[in-house]
């Protein structure tokens, strides 16, 4: 039978996952608690540079080779773990639970652990989702004056939002598993806003430019979904790390049961795709990577490649208030120190340097 002192980590070398490890090491209490567990991390290649560095960051980590498509491996490790943390692709539904194939992954593994230990504590699952689940699908239009909505996690109900919104399908699975009495699990979902900034982890750069940058260069357009006036809540990566430390401590103390946490700064100036395209377009143009720096809506031939998901994420407004975390004393201090718009020029320059190096 499995040890009760194992925790399973998906996405340990990623932007948010590796930042969590860095933030944890600065919190003596949480670090000491998690060191009581054996960390098992799913990695694509145990021999690559990031995996090697992960072993330095967290001595004793057990590396398991696999991807999010290796469902049997994920199920087995979740079943063997008292705690599972998923900071990988939150929209990879099969790795959460593949109901069509009756194939088991994270949730089913946790449920089977619960059945294995009927008299023990329920296994804990902490899952990184995203605030795009709140999208109003406004297709890049500006919200009418006085109609801008900031949703609170204290009143959030998944069923209040369209089932086609990003993150909704896997989150339904997680919420249902948390509410299930038989073979129950403790499910905690974390919803960050648009995360930015240079982090302390193994992957320090935000994914936004890694997605949008190549698209601008390939299409030759600093594009938007619709007019690009949508507003999106932001949060610095180091504030996300601090929030996760807070959430883990609460959860490990047994105080968080089937709870949703929003992670964003409702006081910060929000992200808008039009302004983002203006900044990024000018920088790419200055580096001869884009002929026309002026932002303009993408043609349907581009947006169709991303479907409704693209319109919800890049063309929708989604704003939130982190009421639960604030009640626990968390504040987005790094976001207040360095805004999204102050950080963006350096992030674009870093992206350009990396892009040019990859082409040389």
Descriptive overview:
- The strands form four sheets. The chain has a seven-stranded parallel beta sheet, with helices on both faces. A two-stranded parallel sheet has the order 6-13.
- The chain is of the alpha/beta class and 360 residues long.
- Helix 10 (273-286) crosses helix 15.
- The protein has helices at residues 15-25, 28-34, 49-57, 71-79, 93-96, 106-116, 168-179, 207-219, 237-252, 273-286, 300-303, 307-315, 323-327, 333-337, 340-359; strands at residues 6-10, 38-43, 62-65, 83-86, 124-128, 151-152, 186-192, 194-196, 222-224, 234-236, 260-263, 295-297, 320-321.
Task: Write the element-wise H/E pattern from the N-terminal end onward.
Answer: EHHEHEHEHHEEHEEHEEHEHEHHEHHH
Distance between the termini: 51 Å
Give the CA-based shape. Answer: globular
Count of helices?
15
Number of strands: 13
Q: Can you describe this structure in just a few lines?
A:
The protein has 15 helices and 13 strands.
Provide key terms for this protein.
360 residues; alpha/beta; 14% strand; globular
Write the layout of secondary structure elements.
Elements: E1 6-10, H1 15-25, H2 28-34, E2 38-43, H3 49-57, E3 62-65, H4 71-79, E4 83-86, H5 93-96, H6 106-116, E5 124-128, E6 151-152, H7 168-179, E7 186-192, E8 194-196, H8 207-219, E9 222-224, E10 234-236, H9 237-252, E11 260-263, H10 273-286, E12 295-297, H11 300-303, H12 307-315, E13 320-321, H13 323-327, H14 333-337, H15 340-359
Parallel strand pairs: 1-2, 1-4, 2-3, 4-5, 5-7, 6-13, 7-11, 8-10, 9-12
């Amino acid at each position: 039978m499995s040890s009760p002192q194992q925790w399973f980590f998906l996405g340990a070398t990623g932007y948010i996952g590796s930042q969590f490890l860095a933030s944890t090491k600065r919190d003596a209490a949480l670090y000491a608690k998690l060191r009581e567990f054996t960390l098992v991390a799913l990695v694509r290649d145990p021999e690559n540079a990031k995996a090697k560095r992960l072993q330095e960051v967290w001595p004793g980590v057990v590396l398991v080779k696999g991807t999010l498509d290796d469902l049997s491996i994920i199920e087995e490790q979740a079943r063997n773990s008292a705690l599972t943390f998923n900071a990988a692709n939150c929209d990879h539904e099969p790795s959460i639970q593949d109901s069509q194939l009756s194939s088991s992954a994270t949730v089913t593994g946790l449920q089977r652990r619960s059945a294995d230990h009927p008299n023990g504590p329920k296994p804990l699952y902490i899952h990184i989702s995203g605030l795009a689940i709140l999208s109003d699908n406004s297709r890049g239009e500006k919200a009418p004056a006085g109609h801008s909505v900031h949703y609170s996690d204290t009143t959030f109900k998944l069923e209040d939002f369209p089932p086609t919104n990003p993150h909704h399908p896997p989150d339904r699975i997680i919420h249902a598993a948390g509410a299930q009495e038989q073979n129950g699990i403790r499910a905690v979902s974390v919803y960050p806003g648009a995360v930015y900034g240079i982090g302390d982890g193994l992957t320090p750069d935000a994914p936004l430019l890694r997605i949008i940058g190549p698209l601008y260069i390939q299409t030759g357009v600093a594009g938007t979904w619709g007019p690009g006036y949508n507003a999106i809540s932001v949060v610095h990566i180091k504030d996300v790390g601090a929030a996760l430390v807070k959430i883990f401590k609460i959860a490990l103390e047994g105080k968080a049961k089937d709870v949703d946490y929003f992670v964003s700064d409702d006081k910060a100036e929000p992200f808008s795709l039009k302004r983002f395209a203006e900044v990024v377009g000018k920088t790419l143009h200055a580096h001869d990577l884009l002929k026309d720096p002026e932002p303009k809506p993408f043609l349907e031939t581009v947006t169709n490649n991303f479907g409704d998901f693209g319109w919800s994420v890049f063309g929708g407004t989604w704003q939130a208030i982190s009421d639960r975390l604030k009640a626990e004393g968390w504040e987005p201090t790094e976001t207040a120190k360095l805004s999204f718009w102050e950080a963006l020029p350096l992030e674009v320059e870093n992206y350009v340097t990396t892009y040019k190096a990859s082409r040389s």
